[in-house]
Amino acid sequence: MDRQFRNVLGLFALSLIAAGVAWAASGRERSLAIYPAQNIPLRFDHAQHLEAGADCVTCHETVTKSESPKDRNLPAHPECETCHDIEDAQKGKKTDPPASCGTCHPGFDPTVRKAPAKLDLPSGNLHFTHKVHLAKKVECVTCHGDMTKVTLATRQQLPKMATCFECHDGKQASNECKACHVTQASGRLQLTFASGILRPMQGNPLGLDHGPRFEFNHGTRASVARQTCTQCHADSYCQQCHDALQKPLSVHPNDFITLHPLQARTDAARCESCHRLQSFCAACHERVGVGMDADQSLRPRNVKVHPDYTTWVQTPGPQHHGIVASRDIRQCAACHREETCVSCHSERSLRQQVNPHPNGFSSSCKKLAAANDRACLKCHTETSLVQKGCR
Amino acid sequence: MKTVAHATGAMGLALALLAAGPASAAAVQIEARTEAQAYQIRAWRGTTPEDVVLLPRRRIVQYLGLNAFELVTGQDLGFESSLRVFADFGLPRGEAAKVDGLRAEDADLQYAYARYAVGGFEGKLGRQLYIDSMDIMAFDGLRLRYMSRFGVGVEAYGGLWLKGSGILSSSVYQPEGTRESDSRRLEQGIVDADSSLDALEPVYGAKLLVGDLKGFSGSLGYRKALLGGKTDLERAGLELRYGRGLGVSALAGLDLDLLQLKPAQARLQVRLDRELYAVSAEALRFTPVFSTNSIWYYFAFAPRDEVRVRADFYPVGPLRYYVQALGSLYHTNINDSLALASHVDAEGAPASTNMGGAVGASLRRGSLRSALDVTYRTGFGGNQLWVDLTGGYSFDQGLFDLDARLSVAHVDDEFNPQLRGNFFGAQLWASRALSHATRISLVLEQNVNPFTRSDTKAFFLFDLKANL
Lengths: 391, 468
Fold this sequence. Notes:
The complex is a heterodimer.
Chain A lengths: L2 H21 L22 H6 L4 H4 L17 H4 L5 H5 L10 H4 L25 H6 L4 H5 L16 H4 L27 E2 L2 E2 L16 H4 L1 H6 L1 H4 L5 H4 L17 H11 L1 H4 L5 H11 L21 H6 L6 H7 L1 H5 L4 H8 L15 H11 L4 H4 L2 H6 L4
Antiparallel strand pairs in A: 1-2
Chain B lengths: L1 H18 L7 E17 L9 E17 L6 E13 L4 H4 L8 E14 L2 E11 L4 E12 L4 E10 L21 H6 L13 E12 L2 E12 L2 E14 L4 E10 L4 E12 L3 E10 L17 E10 L5 E12 L22 E13 L2 E12 L2 E14 L4 E14 L6 E14 L4 E12 L3 E15 L1
Antiparallel strand pairs in B: 1-2, 1-22, 2-3, 3-4, 4-5, 5-6, 6-7, 7-8, 8-9, 9-10, 10-11, 11-12, 12-13, 13-14, 14-15, 15-16, 16-17, 17-18, 18-19, 19-20, 20-21, 21-22
C-alpha cells in the first residue's frame, strides 16, 4: 500500500475521532423506539421544588392511579396554583413564588399569542403501570434517579433497561421481555415503531449489543442462545440472509463474487452458514469453469488456478496440494467432487493410491466402517477392508 | 417423499379447520418479497486470463410467507410458512442439467410448521429450521420442548432431514460434503455414484435444558441421522450461557463428533459490558463437519483455531468506535508415512497463520447514519485490505431511504494470481415505502477492477408485510 493512500486513510480516521469528541457534548440517547423524541418548551426546576419541600405526588398527583404509559401524569395549572398564584400574576400583580406565564413558558407573551407552545410528549412504547409499582413500594427515585439536581426532566430521567432489571430479575418481578415490551400477534417483540427501530445497542444489560458489524459477529450467540434471538426474530428474518439465494447486500461488499475466495479461505465457517460446499459452491464453480469435474463443454482450457501439475500433485514439496488440503479441506470440496480425489487416493486407483487418512486411522476404522461403510467402499474392496482389520 | 407431502397437506387442512372454528381471534399475516438480480459473472471456461467471458445472471426470486397466530382464541396456537420460487433466465436449462446442484428454476418450501405453546411447553410440527451449536439444519417432523418453572427442562425432536433431492426441498441445510443428488451421475453410469444420496434421512435428537439458574443456562444434547440404515452423523452438543445484567457475560458451545470422538466445533466468548465500553474475547475451533457418506470425512484434515478480541467504545453522542484483532492458526495433519509430511514447514509452504484486525466507527444521528470499517488480514490465503464506507439518510420520516456504499479492496491472493490488485466498488440504494405494508427498493452497483475490469449489477426488491 503506498504511503499517500495510508496518509489519506489516517487523516480520515483522525477526523472521525475529532468529530466524535465534538459531538460528545450531547446527551446519551435512550432508544427512540422506546422513548420517542420529546419537545418540552417549559422552564422548570425539580431541584428547587424538592428543596422547597414539595414531594413527587404534590405535583404528579395522578401517578398513583396511572395504569398506562400513555398517561402524562404532569401537573396542570390547578396543581401549580397550589403555590403559584397564576390569577394574580395574570392581573399584573407581583407574586411569590413567581407565577407569570413566562416563569414556566419561556418566551410566551399572552398579548401576542393565544396559548404557549405545545408540549410534544409521546408516550413510551412499553407496557407500564405506575399504580402497580407504587403499590409495591417502589420509590420514584429507584426508576427516575436522583431529581434533587435535575432542572427540567426529559427522556434522560426515564429508566433504562438495566434499572428495570434491578427488580425484574425473574424472582421479585418477571424478567420476560413481554412483561414490558410491546409484542406482536406472533408473541415476538414489536421492533418497528413510528419513532424508530428497536435494536439493542451499547450498554444493553443482556450483552445483546447489535452494534457495528453485528451481521458478522452474531454467530456465536445465535448458535448457543437461539431462544434469545427468537424473542424478536422470526425464521423469515434469519432467512433474509441465510438462504443462499438472496444477496445480502449488507453482508457481501461490492463485487463479492469476484473477491470471495480470500474471505472463504480465512472464514469458511461463515460461508457454510448459508452455502453448502458440494451443492452450492461446487455447482457455481463448475458453471463458470473453475471446477474440473464439470461437463467437458464447461471446462477451462487455457486457465489454471493451481500451480503446475508436477508441483501441485506429483512431487512432495512445500507447494503440494496435500498441505493446503490438510489445513483447509473446505477449499477442495468447494470446487472438486469426490471423483477428483478418488482418482489418486483410492486403493483401486490405477495411478498413485496415496493414503489420505490421518495417523492412527486404522485403530478407529473398524468403528467407522461399522457405522457407515458406504464411503469406505468407494475406495476399498470388501476384501481389503477385512485385511486392514476394518471389519 | 409422498408421505411428507401428505403429512404437510393434512397439517394444512387441520390448520384450516382450526382457523375456521367459531369465535376465533386469529391474526393472519402475509409476507412477500420479490427480488430481481441482474449482473454478470466472469467465467473461466475456454478462455485465457486476458479474454474475459461474462455469464449473465437474470434471477427472480419470489418469497411468499403465510402466518397465522392465535388460531384458537386465547391459545398460543399458530402457523408459519415460507415458500420460495425462483428462476434464473440467464442460465439456460440445458446448461443447468450439466452441473450437479444447479437449478434454472425451482420451488422450495423453506418451512411450514404449526406451533403450540402453553406454560413451559412448546411444540412444533412440520417443516422447520433448527439451529444450535451443532448445525443449521431443517427437517420435516416434530419438536417438543418443556421447561419447568424450576429452570430444568427437556427437548426432543425427530423427523426427516431436509435435502435437495426431496420434493419442494432445498439443499441449503443438507449434510456437508454430499452433493444435492447423484441422479445425474447414476444416469451417466459413473462408478461410485450413490443412489442412497436421494434416500430419506431420519434424524432425531434430545436435549436436557437448564434455564437461568443463578444466571446460568444451557443444554446438553445428542443427535443422530441415518441414511439407508447407516449412520450419517452422530453428535453431542454442550451449550452454556452466563449473564446477569451489565457486567460479565459468557457463552460456550461444544460440538462433539461421537463417531471419531473429537470436537468438531468449540467456541467460548467472554464479554464485559459497561455504559461506556464493551470488551469481548472469543476463542473458536473450526473443524469441517462432513457427512460420513462423504469420503472427505475420512481424510486427514486439521482444525483451525481462532482468537478474536474486540473493544467497543461509546462516548456520549452519536458516534461509537470499535477495534478488533484476530489471529488464526491452521493446523496441519498429514500422515507421517507420506514423504509430504517432511515438507509442511519447508520454505515456500503456505503460511499456517492468519493475522489481522479491524477498526471502525459508526454514526447515528436522527435520520443520518454512516459507518466506516477498515479491515486488514495477512497470512494463509494471502493479504487483503478492505475499506468500507457506508452512509444513508431517511427522508420524509423514513418513507424514503437513500443509502450509498463505497468499498476499496487491495487484494493479494496467495493461490490465484488473477486476484491481485485494487478493486473498487460503489453502490447506491434507494428505497421507498409505497404504503404501510409495502416497500420498493432499487440497488445499483458499479465495480472497477483488474479481474472483471468493469461490471454493473442491479437489484430490485419489492417487500410486502400485511396483516389481514
